[in-house]
Amino acid sequence: MNRKTTLPDPSRFFEIRFESIGGLGAHAAGQILARTAVLHMNLNGAHFSSYGSEKKGSVVRSYIRLGGADKPIRTSAPIDSPDVVVVFHTALLEQPITLAGLKSGSTVICNAAAGELPEGLSRVPAGATIVRVDALKIAVEERSRPNAVLLGTLTAALPFLDADTVLTGLNEGFAHHNSEAVAANERAFARGGKEFEVVDHVGQGSEDLPIMRPQPVWGYQTAPIGGVLPLPGNTVWNDLTTSRTGWLPVFNTEECIHCGLCVLVCPDFCLVWSNEGAGTVPALECPDFSLTWSTEGPGEEAPSARLLGVDYRYCKGCLRCIETCPTEAMTREAETPGLADRLQVPLYPEITKRVGGTRGN
Amino acid sequence: MATNIQAAVQPSATRPRRGATAPQRVDFLSGNEAAAAAARDIGFHLMGYFPITPSTEVAENLAKMQANGDHEIVMVPGDGEHGAAGICYGAAIGGGRVLNATSSQGLLYALEQLPVQAGTRMPMVLNIATRAVSGPLDIRCDHSDVYFALNTGWIILLARDPQAVYDLNFAAVKIGEHADVRLPVLVAYDGFFTSHQKRRLECFDDAETVRREFLGKPDAPYTALDPRHPVTFGPYMNDPDLINNKQQLSLAMEAARQVIPQVLEELHALTGRLYPVMDAYRMDDADVAVVLLNSAAETAKEVADHLRDSGQKVGVLSPNVLRPFPAAAFRDALTSVRAVVIGDRADSYGADGGNLSLEVRAALQQDEHNRTLVLSRVYGLGGRDFDDTDAAQFFEQATQSAKSQQVAVPFAYHGTYAGDPDQKPPSGLPAIETAEVSRGMARVRENPDTGRLEVELEPLWATTTMPGRIAPGHGACPGCGVFPVLHQVYSVLEGDLVVLFQTGCAMVVTTGYPNTAHRITYIHNLFQNGAATLAGLVEMYHELLRRGELPDSPDITFMMVTGDGGMDIGIGPALGAAHRNHNMIILEYDNQGYMNTGAQLSYATPLGHRTSTSEVGRKRAGKVFHHKDTAQIFASCHLPYVFTASEGYPEDLMRKAAKAQWYAKHEGLVYGKVLSFCPLNWRTTDDAAQSVLQTAVDSCFFPVYEVEKGQTMISYDPDLLGRRRKVSDWLALMGKTKHLMSPDNAENLAAVEAEVDRRWRRLKAMHQHPEL
């Protein structure tokens, strides 16, 4: 299969940007699409992703640049002013940079449940098209991943892309997987191409969204020399909310014996304790040596520290606290919109809990 | 449908290119993938390597291909880049074809091997995915690494895109091995911009023929593997001889000036793609020009096209060869250019221009008629993008100079930011007072009868309100085990603490500028040099105390935190510190691989485990040698205290941490190794820590013990407790070892089991003997 494909405007590149969180498959999906364009659609193409040294759970941008077969691709710059933005996680819409450079006539594809299009989309230029698809739900139902669904939606939204060809590329991308996984991807892709809605009247913006470049906070006249950071612990202003992938731990205060085991395994230091109040610690009965705790010695008095809850600004949803909890004080719940805000117990009350929210002075 | 898919999965059709004699096929590869594909098609004999971003993928891709039998290159993972370069040098003396790939610090750590390789005339190919040199550490592109190679005697080819990476690797082999040259060759391409960007390119369809007809067989005049012709390599050579050896090298470089265009022309005939020594784009009648290397030059070409459309006579010069330096080509190309901006992606600090700029100026100075005005600019350091607006500014600055016939600013940084005095990064937390962290969470006393330390711990809940020495908001993966390890240790360490982290996950995710999670003083130096650095600081501290120059100093504890990878590359400085017995702790979090750079094998990775450089495929199943026993190495240093512990056994770890602090204060260096969970690269769910860690200990893969004043004590004996599990029970819990459960890999599994059992029996014997 090697279709001749014509882009809407052959005189320039057609540019697509995926906005995602590490682990959702944006890099793989971008690579598959660009690869398919080059190998099977007789187009020229480039693909790359940008991500920092942060690990799973941080923001990932994946860029696809497509041009005619004979149009050389020379620039290696990121895509500032995309024809399509695919948003893999709605939380990203709270950051203006997610939709930066979006222009009238372009398309936004957003992974969101029905009726749950976030407010951030109102900034989209009125002349742009907004497409919603519940990629997460479809992916869960088909035992696939959201990237296969979103690739299906993207293909349906762009008339120059042929669904069979893109699906072929998708299957090649997962050629090393078993046939069940491939079939699941096919179903997810097909449903993504059908079960989307074009949402009217959400984009209210009167002009194109400006291009955004990250600007450093300090410059060469203001930064301390040598790159030192005399700002101990200022990562507390970071917001790791988007690292969670659907689940969070919920604290049930009445079940808690305030033993402190969860603190020993929490990688994110997001459990909030108080010194006030007292109770008694029942003897722990843990089958594994790893979870026993000496109750001998000078510490037999009742605990004066109490667990109050979780600061979800920092919780990445690993659920290790649940694995370790000897009672049922921590339980796993699906993260529905607003749940974390309702349960939030802040470690630093002066910090507002918003994604990309208030910065310090 | 199925048929369609099948048809499409076939490699895309061979496309004989006009003017090319070799059949080629279209592929879609990044620069790193192109380097790996070229290596496969060249069929090097051996690759010595060590992982470093952004070049690591070259070895990763080759490991994947090797696992499936797609090539037969012997891949030797070095203990560091210095070792990797040595492996390559040794292999080159054997006369076969040798490959390496590195970046940034890796090149600098290997640097002293480079002039030896050139001076003793051993061809090989080194791919550099160019990246900024530390400090502070930056993983993005600039040319500060490759500029360090300018004086090493290596030929340097520049690959501006993935196609060039593929093509120039072939050229590199042929140029370097030419009888008149016999020099090693470096192929440099831009980190991330080229190394990680996928582009359409063409690969040879019939590599065998290209190998035979274009490359031929390597023909080393001298090898170390011919006992009938004994040769001394590397004699002791002083004056008056060395200068003559160097003139030979210089003449070889001169010979390369002739050989390189010939080889590139042959390659042109083969591929249809020409790489002139000087890529002169729209330069014929250019009034102004910019000179740039690699990907930035390609960006500038786009802008040049636009400016040409509006009638401006502009062009772009970008050499494909940096050594030997094409001075004459620069002179020719700039003869009638009125003004030129030369952009350097690295500074030669204090020289008013980067190396490229200085060398082009020197080239022009040889032409007494040349009137070209030169503007030197430093741009794009540490990965700062160079896009069309930047290129347009360079053209504009050159145009202004040409018009005014003067250079207003001969040298400047481009694209920096002065800063706004009203803007600051988010404020930090208050410093932790000594009293807040001196709460006796662990009380240590020496038992006069046994001579050993005993520890009494406060109840756990009491530690929960200790101020954390690391703040939340760090960027580790969900479920990361490093932070529980640090928390458990920090909870019992008393008083003021200064830490040094070696390069690794814990360092990267806690200190992304301008944020730091560390609430106490923290230091990062080079990957391998932490123990030496901390040793220097410890001794400075004691000397300042002795001289009374720190009159109000609290009693500081010093601790180095490292991953298991850091104890590969950094084992030398760590053993040095251990033998000198400084008052410090070395704490290793062992997650069995280079997880920071994408899960490459470390020497701590057990046999058979899948990593990105020990892949599992049709021909191979994971790592081919056993895990390093670092705790025993340090025990052999006769330290006051060595321990192992598991993140999943906090009470034990915390007791040991308390003892570590006591010994570090009173007797000297302590080494501790802690098994640390890595769900991402062990391929488990984020909340599988307890079971995996528990089984690692119960299967005796990871024995938990201490060596206190030379006596070995097992802290937890699964045999005695009736909890012994099979090694396979542990391996079955992780995706990275699932393949070891298959009957195909029974031999590997048996080998791991036997080795684990042997080490465990040995340890038990030591436990039972009072002198061991």
Account of the 3D structure:
The complex is a heterodimer of chains A (361) and B (772). Chain A is of the alpha/beta class. Chain A has 2 domains: 14-199, 3-Layer(aba) Sandwich (Pyruvate-ferredoxin Oxidoreductase, domain 3), CATH 3.40.920.10; 236-289 and 301-343, Alpha-Beta Plaits, CATH 3.30.70. Helices cover 21% and strands 17% of the residues of chain A. Chain A contains 8 helices and 11 strands. In chain A, strands 2-3-1-4-5-6-7 form a 7-stranded mixed β-sheet. In chain A, strands 8-11 form a two-stranded antiparallel ribbon. In chain A, strands 9-10 form a two-stranded antiparallel ribbon. In chain A, strand 2 and strand 3 (59-68) form a beta hairpin. In chain A, helix 3 (146-157) crosses helix 5 (179-194). Chain A is globular, with a radius of gyration of 24 Å. By secondary structure, chain B is α/β, with parallel strands linked by helices. Chain B has 3 domains: 24-225 and 239-271, Thiamin diphosphate (ThDP)-binding fold, Pyr/PP domains (Rossmann fold); 278-413, Rossmann fold; 446-768, 3-Layer(aba) Sandwich (Rossmann fold), CATH 3.40.50.970. Chain B has 26 helices and 25 strands. In chain B, the strands form 5 sheets. In chain B, strands 19-18-20-21-23-22-24-25 form an 8-stranded mixed β-sheet, with helices on both faces. Chain B is globular, with a radius of gyration of 29 Å. Chain B starts with a helix and ends with a helix. The interface between A and B is large, with 108 and 112 residues. Strand 2 of chain A pairs antiparallel with strand 8 (198-204) of chain B.
